[in-house]
UniProtKB/TrEMBL annotation:
Keywords of the record: Membrane, Transmembrane, Transmembrane helix
KW Transmembrane (keyword) present: yes
Single GO BP term: vacuolar proton-transporting V-type ATPase complex assembly
Lineage per the UniProt record: Eukaryota, Fungi, Dikarya, Ascomycota, Pezizomycotina
Name by which UniProt lists this protein: Pkr1-domain-containing protein
Length: 156
């Protein structure tokens, strides 16, 4: 038992899954399922069925992930072994850089021209800015001037 606890402690600090860690995980989930079954029998509460389904799904997902991780590691090791068995050719560039080939088509590009810059057609007239007043204040003054001009014309 001391050897298992020591292996479990060491497996925590090693990357990936280890058989000791998977064994401890499976024993823990099996114990949890037994406890949930005992509580279901003792209380007849549907909550323990839901908890059992959730923990069972998590248990399955952890084992599935460990299996997929093991398969990926075996595949990677097999590729490394094949790469080591290949003969090394002299005078060739064995760099692992990827080269992209750009294939150009001679078709004209069509699309929206809404984002293209528009040529200036005339001079822009800047509105007189008042240093202390906002733009809305300037436009309000213009409106009041028009109203007062209309009143003056009515009086005549």
């Amino acid at each position: 038992m001391a050897g298992f606890a020591e292996q479990l402690w060491e497996s925590i600090f090693t990357p990936g899954t280890t058989p000791t860690l998977l064994l401890a995980t499976n024993v823990t989930f099996a114990s949890l399922q037994l406890v949930l079954l005992a509580l279901l029998i003792a209380t007849y509460s549907v909550h323990f069925v839901a908890l059992s389904l959730i923990s069972g799904g998590l248990w399955w997902a952890i084992n599935w992930f460990a299996t997929e991780l093991r398969a990926a590691q075996e595949k990677e090791e097999a590729e490394k072994a094949r790469a080591e068995q290949r003969p090394v050719r002299q005078g060739t560039d064995d760099s692992e850089t990827e080269v992209e080939t750009i294939i150009s088509d001679n078709k004209p590009k069509t699309g929206s021209k809404a984002v293209e810059p528009v040529e200036k057609t005339g001079d822009l007239k800047l509105r007189a800015e008042h240093s202390l007043e906002s733009k809305s204040a300037a436009s309000t003054e213009d409106e009041w001037e028009k109203v007062s001009e209309n009143e003056n014309e009515k009086d005549k």
